[in-house]
Amino acid sequence: MRRTRQRHFSGARMVVLSNPYIAGNPVRGDAFFVGRTAILRDVQELLRNPDTNAIVLYGQRRIGKTSILFELEQRLVETGKYLPVYFDLHDKSDLSLSEILFRLAEQISRHMDGVVVERAYFDQEGSFFRDDFLPGAVCPTSKRLVFLFDEFDVLDRPYKGQVGATFLPYLRRWVARTCDVNFVLAMGRRPDELSTPMLNTFKDAQTRRVSLMDIPESLAIVRQSEDNHTLYWSESGINRICYWTQGHPYLTQLLSGEVWEMIYDDAPQQPPTATVDDVDLAVAAALEQGANAFQWMWNGLTPAEKVAISAMAATGKSSFNRQALRFRGAGMFRRELEMAPESLVTRDLLRRSGSGYRFAIPLFQRWVMENQPPGRVRADLESQQPKAENLFKDAKNSFALGDLNDAEIRVRHALAVNPNHVRARLLLGRIHLSHGHYAEAVAAIESAYRSDPQTARPDMLTALLALADSQRNIDEQWQTLNRAARIDPDLPMIRERQSAVLRAWAENAVEAGNYQVALNAYEKLGDRSNAAAVRRKMRQQAFAARMPGFLKISSK
To answer: Which domains, and CATH codes, for the chain?
Structure first.
């Protein structure tokens, strides 16, 4: 939010002074957007690539993904070649397919004159939106439709009653059959944290990480007050801003804005110059004003990551090694704790430093030190662990009694309390298997497998083999079996099923006349007899191509 003050400068003339720093809301408009040149260029180049119809932008919370989407929307409009449509999925997780398509159509209609959208036409199968609305409203414009989906990982909840259960499969079918729509997807989770159904929807998508800004881009943010001639910066002052925020766009806006406010509390008679002392004095106010944003960043961490980063911050040091991770009472997180530093590096919250680590953003370290000390984090975990464990035990009992619905409700409650509860994840996977929801089972167990491969391996193999048996598409079945083989390449059952798929693949290829594909499959199987038969067919095919009339004459 932009704040203004009235001040007398150089005499009696009253001028309205505007704090140029925007912290809290996405930046929208050329006058306020700064940096991100490389990402915007990459996205626009990818949109021109006919072989790519989806781009994923991912990064930590408050890193500026929404501002990038707004800027991209404006730039695409200016080209005259695109119809960009921004759509935020954040608060739409419980909508039906027809409702979300209706709202999407409403958003499209805002860009077009004379297009009226009526709710009654939108069906639950999405036929009207795909077959009537888009061809009638968008196609006549000759502009390429580009959906800018914000908070796209909201769809990675494929549960009954949530939009991911309907909209995600709808998009998957749509993407597979269309080449005239592009998608730019912004999300807070890393691609490797997504479920298999989500990854399969945009499996060929390009990915771009939205990270911290570089120094020139950060300086451009800080110097906004010099552009409107309200506040100048000493070299030490501007360097201090960069030290505390390290190129985090929101935090740079936040701290710079608090420096501006603090200095103008003293009612200067001339545009002042901010020093290193001014910046350090404004840190406390920035921590207070940004409390919700810091808490939001904190809430996005796993329990083990919270334990690790709290222990590191508590050292008060600028760098630290793994010994800082000793945390009393965290036995159940021991494996996750070992992995936490590297995970926090990928989140742009830690940086590698020699043989150890350092905080990527000192301002966030300061907030963690003051608001999430190890004792408080430990107390929170200890209060959650018994509750999650009790809910898991109740769910396990219901599952044993055959009450799958009650078991699912209880195990989801357990995971809401402790998302890293490996046994609860495995139980949820078993519940999905009992329902015959094999893709959902794989997604649930895969999350546990990443945390504890040894414990989750048997369930993971069971779920993958069940999914493969349910798949009718040979390519998909082969991919699923390959995933199982990577987990246990020596399991005879997997090798047998791979052989059966290869043989079916080869037979289908022979019928279709794709002899090279069939030959590759038979050779992989070690089936010399059928491989020889395919080679004969290939020679006959090659001979017929060279002498097209010979076979007809010789057959008379």
So the answer is: 16-25+214-289 (1.10.8), 37-209 (3.40.50.300), 294-372 (1.10.10), 380-489 (1.25.40.10), 500-550 (no CATH)
